[in-house]
């Protein structure tokens, strides 16, 4: 009997412990539900508050942008209303004259360059023939040495040295003559050259009328290298 009573007491104790645990679990569950509901409520409220703040900010930004876009630039307004001044006939004619004058100058310069590069002027052609004749003459080389160079004037200016003094004319028979004079220099001396050539109508070639070399240093002397003798 005692053993049965002790077993019954143990069962009652276990049942009481289970009941207490169930109450504690129910209490904890009720507190957790309340906390969860408060969390969900806060989660629902926060997006609404954020959306309201974003909406108000966008409204303020749109208003500010609208205010900025409607401001007029005080410096652009006068340029829209400047009347165009009509060009008179005199002004148009003067512009045309200036343009034509500019084209004329440009055309003349282009022609001069083209003539200088493509067509060798007659005076330079005669200068080249005379200098070549002098460079191969032993009377000159023995006095001033070799090689012999030629130039237009005794100047340090390169352009002036390249210009050859000349005279071009046509005689009564229609024959063209070219007269030039220039300076020569060699390793041992210097001199001056006087020459004239004409264009023979029979064979259309340039021929010497005369070619005179005046040696000035080291010993002054005049040399007649060419002289035309009609056939």
From TrEMBL:
It comes from the Eukaryota. GO terms for biological process: protein import into mitochondrial matrix. Signal peptide: none annotated. It is found in: Mitochondrion inner membrane. Keywords: Membrane, Mitochondrion, Mitochondrion inner membrane, Protein transport, Transit peptide, Translocation, Transmembrane, Transmembrane helix, Transport. GO terms for cellular component: TIM23 mitochondrial import inner membrane translocase complex. The chain crosses the membrane at residues 93-114. It is a single-pass membrane protein. Essential component of the TIM23 complex, a complex that mediates the translocation of transit peptide-containing proteins across the mitochondrial inner membrane. Component of the TIM23 complex. Belongs to the TIM21 family. This is Mitochondrial import inner membrane translocase subunit Tim21.
């Amino acid at each position: 009997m005692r053993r049965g009573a002790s077993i019954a007491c143990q069962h009652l104790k276990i049942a009481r412990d289970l009941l207490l645990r169930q109450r504690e679990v129910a209490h904890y569950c009720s507190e957790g539900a309340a906390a969860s509901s408060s969390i969900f409520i806060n989660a629902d409220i926060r997006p609404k508050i954020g959306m309201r703040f974003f909406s108000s900010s966008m409204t303020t930004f749109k208003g500010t942008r609208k205010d900025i876009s409607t401001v007029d630039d005080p410096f652009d307004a006068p340029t829209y209303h400047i009347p165009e001044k009509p060009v008179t006939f005199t002004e148009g004619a003067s512009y045309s004259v200036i343009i034509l004058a500019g084209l004329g100058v440009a055309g003349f310069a282009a022609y001069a360059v083209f003539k200088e590069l493509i067509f060798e002027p007659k005076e330079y052609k005669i200068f080249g023939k005379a200098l070549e004749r002098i460079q191969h003459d032993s009377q000159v080389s023995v006095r001033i040495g070799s090689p012999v160079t030629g130039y237009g004037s005794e100047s340090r200016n390169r352009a002036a040295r390249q210009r050859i003094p000349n005279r071009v004319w046509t005689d009564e028979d229609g024959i063209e003559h070219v007269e030039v004079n220039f300076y020569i220099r060699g390793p041992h001396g210097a001199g001056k050259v006087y020459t004239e050539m004409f264009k023979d109508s029979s064979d259309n070639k340039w021929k010497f009328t005369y070619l005179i070399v005046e040696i000035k240093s080291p010993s002054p002397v005049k040399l007649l290298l060419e002289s035309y003798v009609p056939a």
